[in-house]
Amino acid sequence: MFFASDNWAGAHPAIAESLVEAAAGFASAYGTSDLDKRVEKTFSEIFERDVAVFFVGTGTAANSLALASVTRPGGQVFCHREAHVNVDECNAPEFFACGAKLQPVDGPAGKMPADALAAAIGRFPPDFIHGGQPMAVTITQATEAGTAYTLDEIAALAAVAGEAGLPLHMDGARFANALVHLGTTPAEMTWKRGVDILSFGGTKNGCWCAEALVLFDPGKARQMHFLRKRSAQLFSKSRFIAAQFEAYFRDGLWLELARRSNGTAARLAEGIGRSATARLAWPTGSNELFAIVRNDAIKALRDKGAVFYDWPAGPAVKATMAEDETLIRLVTSFATTDEEIAGFLSAL
Amino acid sequence: MFFASDNWAGAHPAIAESLVEAAAGFASAYGTSDLDKRVEKTFSEIFERDVAVFFVGTGTAANSLALASVTRPGGQVFCHREAHVNVDECNAPEFFACGAKLQPVDGPAGKMPADALAAAIGRFPPDFIHGGQPMAVTITQATEAGTAYTLDEIAALAAVAGEAGLPLHMDGARFANALVHLGTTPAEMTWKRGVDILSFGGTKNGCWCAEALVLFDPGKARQMHFLRKRSAQLFSKSRFIAAQFEAYFRDGLWLELARRSNGTAARLAEGIGRSATARLAWPTGSNELFAIVRNDAIKALRDKGAVFYDWPAGPAVKATMAEDETLIRLVTSFATTDEEIAGFLSAL
Amino acid sequence: MFFASDNWAGAHPAIAESLVEAAAGFASAYGTSDLDKRVEKTFSEIFERDVAVFFVGTGTAANSLALASVTRPGGQVFCHREAHVNVDECNAPEFFACGAKLQPVDGPAGKMPADALAAAIGRFPPDFIHGGQPMAVTITQATEAGTAYTLDEIAALAAVAGEAGLPLHMDGARFANALVHLGTTPAEMTWKRGVDILSFGGTKNGCWCAEALVLFDPGKARQMHFLRKRSAQLFSKSRFIAAQFEAYFRDGLWLELARRSNGTAARLAEGIGRSATARLAWPTGSNELFAIVRNDAIKALRDKGAVFYDWPAGPAVKATMAEDETLIRLVTSFATTDEEIAGFLSAL
Amino acid sequence: MFFASDNWAGAHPAIAESLVEAAAGFASAYGTSDLDKRVEKTFSEIFERDVAVFFVGTGTAANSLALASVTRPGGQVFCHREAHVNVDECNAPEFFACGAKLQPVDGPAGKMPADALAAAIGRFPPDFIHGGQPMAVTITQATEAGTAYTLDEIAALAAVAGEAGLPLHMDGARFANALVHLGTTPAEMTWKRGVDILSFGGTKNGCWCAEALVLFDPGKARQMHFLRKRSAQLFSKSRFIAAQFEAYFRDGLWLELARRSNGTAARLAEGIGRSATARLAWPTGSNELFAIVRNDAIKALRDKGAVFYDWPAGPAVKATMAEDETLIRLVTSFATTDEEIAGFLSAL
């Protein structure tokens, strides 16, 4: 019963097999092989427009390169306070962007409200040197709280960013999960709503190690080649990432895997909703959910072998919790089984 | 007939299969799984002492992190002029080390002579603030010229570095090739000769993507955890690197693969030695060789489908070349076949 | 009636004259002259212990170098949310420290409460790689709110920092103002209370351009020489800073100037206390005060030629303000005259 | 008899007095005062076109900011091997430019030949990611060898840079000395010959601390405001630099001072030319000269109190030197007296 993270799963068999198939033969290195090119083209098809794609090794790399590419000295980047870039990347975004600063914005359930974003940006008057200048906005889809921005919410944030002349980056570590939750298309969830740069994650959804930086304006791609290499993210046998993505996209596997993990998460949520000892902290929009659980139930779950993390509760949630309750995070993956769900719910 | 780079090969079947085997099941993320720990232990066995091991995604990352970990403001790092860190990493070492500077040292056949190193270090008087301060020495084994430092040469460089209080880093992108060429042990070629930090490469020798930073003093490892994460090189499903190394080390596969590519390189060298239109620029000590070839022979080779790169010749080599000759680089890999060698030599 | 900033004043005549006196003659450059050495010794006398002193050109440089010297990759630095390093230095601290991150802590009247600091540090568990690691605490004395930490408050913060193994930095841009307000000695306000590094400011208190970084543990000074030079803060004719400090310290001029500006600020505060249209937002502890003023009075003041800045009010202060009131900042300097005070108060 | 550096002189009385005059009164801070604006306008007059001017504290800062402003990831900057930015700034240019790399070019007497520059640039093929990309050229006028580029030489270098699409920066730490040596105008020596950015130095020529970054395309100035502030080079009482420049430019003082130091250097050179124990290593074009002197004469000079530095001789010069000779550097300043020259020459 592993609910600690979707990172604890391995890789889907089809993806691992793709690495076996691609292992034979010679191909030019550093992202120039036929396979690399073919998968890059697939990205353009999936997003319904010409995009520039850069394979990288980690989500941290994708996010940090994205922000580095759009910031200059004195740069301020706006994000949700709990965003991965702000709390879980050990200063990588700040390092890659040569000291750019993240400006955290608060909002319920992991989402940055458009008016809060506007207010935060408004605190930096144009040409006020000392405070630096707004340079980018980054949102996470699905969010760190397991919720998903609606298309309208994305458009509203993009409008605020655009008004201020700021590019909008989306951290899509769980892109597929949000996508199938919303039942929309990749294009609708991104550039059609004003997203400029996307960190497209495959690792959490069944790949071994497959992340891609997607630039919706390929005209801005030239510098990224050097930026990526300087950041040690240009892989010599880059086709090992391409091979994973090829299997990932084939016959819609990526959507199927996301549906599967969202589905187990939904059943988990439903069971928690019926439970006397636990309740959801807020509705989920992906494969991640947060529950307020009685401490004795938590003990029972762990005794039965369930693995999950306690999570720090923000003030608003804390106010709704009893003394003997704890906030926990549960993450399902493509590999989560019905037995695990049943086991967890019965232990609860 | 692919002799462009060992990066053009894919992965050895055993290594790709290891990724399939490891794909199932849950395991804790970010380098903490049993498999990660097991492979880390294997490194200690192979090096005959407790070492700290950090898996990373690229050789550039390993080198850059190594240098970043041993430099402070004003840091000068000494390397051969043609070292990969100096000419082929797009400023990644300088970036990771916050502006540290590489001080190139000349030497024949890709090797930095100990006295040239001592002279270069000597140009930085202690406490002369303006010029910065020596902070590290880095050597490449096998070198970018395909040669291998002898154990005595390594010891001599380490003595110079040690005298100046500088740590010695070894870029081992082709570690196994040099090792089997010298017929020595990993311990003898590194810490027993004074090497402090090693970039241990698996990718060029049959892995998909497997590089490790090895610290021979594990007491200095703590900061590296943060340094690696800040550089976006901590992989969530880190065991996908561990799984490659597990197969790589099993039953000495890594040494067998290196022997194979060194062997095809040797046969190539032998054939070139007999040729009327080509000669070796210097003896090889790995799977990489450099040949001076008549331009008409080069044309013939390429017409027959041989793939390789022209290489810039330094002044000393240039002086030995005729007008109608070109320096080329030939690299074999674990996947190079006898047919390819025969085909190349007959075309020559 | 200039109350915009103490930076708007020029230099005290004695300090400017000192530059004239020092202008003649030759002296060794880059901080090695007799005058430099002499003034460094004065710092040791003033602080009653051997200190290492580094002259720099701006307060931003002093603060940024201090933080850079005590942070490593993944470094988190704790400061008050309104601290100058956090809001007014255009990411210089983050840049100098290669991407270190400032963790803002809230507290009333510009002061960071010790328990809030402890809680903030506590959110970073040891060895949790993703979040980075606490590396330093920085406080401002006098604070950006014009208040001064008491000696006990400094000691309490130092105790929290020390418990966590973190060095304590003090931004003393208005060091002298806080010092004379508390009526204590430089030693008592710093190292005797646990401060490790000090940005000692002279510019705001009557110098042209004189800032010094003071290390209370001179054994840690060696790296700072290179750090300062790499940051372009080693002045060739460094004695032009030394000459200012020499005049600044002669016959206690620095304390006299601070008493003077604190005194005019106190009279201003007193007058505001008696006013019907204005009141202090909180008591002052330096030459800087914050007042809540009726908008019509603000207009009258500006019509009469008073120069000052509106200031953003935090939520706690805002809650006490009427709709037709504004928070303003008033700063006096050594050059502020009794006439200016009288003029301001009568216009109020 | 101080010939160690022009940095050993203090400040010209008129410049120190200007600081006394400017000390009184209030003025807006951070470069916005009337005096700042007035002096900026003077720069435009002197250069016969609208320029953007940024005052900074050190030559290292001016150079590093200039290079930082024109480099992006993977940036290669071409300079003479002995350029100050390459050997005497403790990695500040690399740090400010986030890891950009200096590519040293050899040339006699401190000058980079245009064809050598073209060859160096040519080693970086367009779109070859691994090696990074050319981004700027920087030259020093007068050079570190005390010579001055002719106007034609500058134009030739600018043509090479322009061909490659690279901006041309001039390090003018001894701008005035080269200018009066060539007998030309500031405009002719810079933008009319293709210089894009200039580090304009006043410190070595009689100021206390006055350096300016001059952008000949003011349209590119916006980012520099943030870059300068982030680098801790925005001075609060910026008018203390402006006041120095005001006196520096008044009635052509700066040219007079440069003529004076060039003149004493010329007399020194003449005397050395007549000497039996010394000879010039190459002709001088400023206030700096390099002489090959017999060791017994050097001893005699130092015994008589002459202060100067030995200098490392490059291979070409070394080949012309006897075993008992040493290369020395002699620098005169505005404050060098005829007695010092006479004393030196008689001791020789």
TrEMBL record, chains A, B, C, D:
Catalyzed reactions per annotation: L-threonine = acetaldehyde + glycine; L-allo-threonine = acetaldehyde + glycine
InterPro entries according to UniProt: ArAA_b-elim_lyase/Thr_aldolase, Low_specificity_L-TA_bact, PyrdxlP-dep_Trfase, PyrdxlP-dep_Trfase_major, PyrdxlP-dep_Trfase_small
Name of the protein this chain belongs to: L-threonine aldolase
Family: Belongs to the threonine aldolase family.
Needed co-factor(s): pyridoxal 5'-phosphate
Organism annotation: Shinella pollutisoli
Aromatic amino acid beta-eliminating lyase/threonine aldolase domain boundaries: 3-278
Protein EC: 4.1.2.48
Assembly, per entry: Homotetramer.
Enzyme class of the recorded protein, top EC level: lyase
Domain of life: Bacteria
